[in-house]
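Two folds, back to back.
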Amino acid sequence: MRYPVRYIVKSFLVAILSVGLINVPSFAANEKPLGLVTQATEAHLGSATVAIGTTVYPGDTLATDEGGTVRLKVGGSQFYLLASSSATLSANSTIVNASVARGTVGFSSNGTDQLALEIPEGIVRAANGQPGYGQVTIIGPREVIVSAYRGTLVLDNDGDLHEIPAGKSYRVTMDLEPAAEPQAPAGVGGNNKVVAPKRRHLLFDLIVLGAVGAASYALWYHLSESPYNPNQ
């Protein structure tokens, strides 16, 4: 009788371990990829070199060296990074977001697969869910250039919406000003005041990019081949 008992216990342990091994890869499988790299030159994903066909997941950071470029297909839309740029990808149920750390990052949205660029001044996206494409260039900690090449862009500053019309570029400068100091409830004394967060105050200056803008547009057109057919 001792042999059957040992056999049953051993079989039970093997079954538990097998279930555990089956479940391990399922967690990784549940992480849905955001997109696929379709063009890369002197580009990196974390510490690894990016190649065409590389899959990008939420939390991944794409970066380019001087002279590098990378293009990422997201459904029927796409992101691109020009030279000396970096962005971290994330997503929710409705939009894929690229948080821009440095350099020049742009997007082309087909109106169905929504993309956005997160910068210190707010969130840049196509207006009203329409097709469009444009880019941002980080100039400094509180200064960025936002360019709309096709379609109107919207810069969402915590609900304060600013439109960038097609064919226009704006230098956006951010000033941080304190919000109104909240008053303590009646009868409450002491110095336990709630510190209100600072609000972003944005200044917009229409600019002409000239040769720099023309070069960015030409390079983007070359990368995408067709602004409204990013699958090609």
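---
second:
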Amino acid sequence: MPLKKQKYYITTTLPYVNAEPHIGFALEIIQADVLARFHHLSGEEVVFNTGTDEHGMKIYRKALEQKKEPLAYCDEYAARFDALKRALDLSYTNFIRTTDPHHIKAAQEFWMLCYKNGDIYKKNYQVKYCVGCEMEKTDSELMDGRCPIHPKMELEQIEEENYFFKFSKYQKKLLDIYEKNPKFVIPKNRLREIKNFVESCLQDFSISRLKSKMPWGIEVPNDSEHVMYVWFDALINYISTIGWPDDMKKYNSLWPGLQVAGKDNLRQQSAMWQAMLLSAGLKPSKQIFIHGFITSRGQKMSKSLGNVVDPFEIVNKYGTDATRYYLLGAMPAYEDGDFTVENFEKFYTAHLANGVGNLTSRILTMLEKYSDGKVPPKSEAFFEVKKFWQEYEDALEEFAFDKIIIAINELVSKCDELISEQKPWEKAKKGEDITELLYQLAEGLRHIGISLLPIMPRTAERILNGLNIRTEDVVDLKKEIKWGGLKSGVDVKKGEMLFPRI
């Protein structure tokens, strides 16, 4: 009887459908995809969730601007975000929309659990509110009286009766979570940041809006005059997508999971959401990885500034795998990274056209020319791949995607250096035996191909196919990362250039 597969659950945040998909979310979902693919290649059963966040004031106003029903507006934008699956070659298994009937039911049941636990109450309040963030703002969070994230938007003064969540009640429990699991939030500086926030005296937050003022939301159970505040509703997607509360067997087999989120979501994901889970009597998340923003020439990208980069345009011009490799390798995993076309093209030329692509062509050409188009007999390793795979897995465990790309580029360079030092073409001309060297290079290329499977899936497939390896046969990375996995005597085929020069 085969062993039961270990399960791995990963989710991105849900992008808000008030604008087109942008390169910042592309980075987040590609990072999550790398993790999902790696765990799938490690023999685990992967559930990978993404989707769209579709309620709230911004959506409602955008729909009114375009003279559309809110759901019709959301349908259009949800389809555009789902189109990223093909454009970016994503492997997600779940695409949840917060307008899905199952999610609506789950959000209402979740609300009732928190309510029955005494953590939801009503009160009148006044607050400064940023529609851009869909969040209340205290004076200490403002710069010159405006939200620093949306400085062009006027803050709105809200004065009404809302339902509130007893966030303050969970201060100690949240701090206990952070203390007991020092890798609950990665990187460390974000964990310190959320600890400081929670220690500084939590304020209860509003979790409803008057339906008469903002009708586009999930109705509060037993009170048809209110709809749920968008953050309260949206966060529940992480568990509603895996069956909660209808399919508890499925939910219990997958939760808690890993969440991938941008730094502007730190408070919501690692404090508000965790407190809500505790209130509902559910387990906190397993781990949260917080990535940085993508800026454009040092400025945060925004539609109002006109500097948003469209991921579809980048893919159309340079290809899916090149886009994935650049975002993972040229953007710092933890901090903000600057996107420019000039930097993209330099990176492409150095690491793809002159790097992975050129090396693949050189090795397969030499095998065709000097080894009759076949893999020569096995030989011992000239260079150490064990160290490479240790660095690769360590970086992956820390979500340091840029370090993974550095490790791959260094392995490519080692193979190139070996060719330059040994000059196989000169040795062959003199009649020297170069079969041992050729196996070294072919096996090195196999390791590069395997390492690229989660990073650039189609490129990895083409490299491995050139070595007569079917990617569907790669089902256990632990077996593949040992030296000598390339079979001798099999036919090799050069194929077309992987990355044409630009």
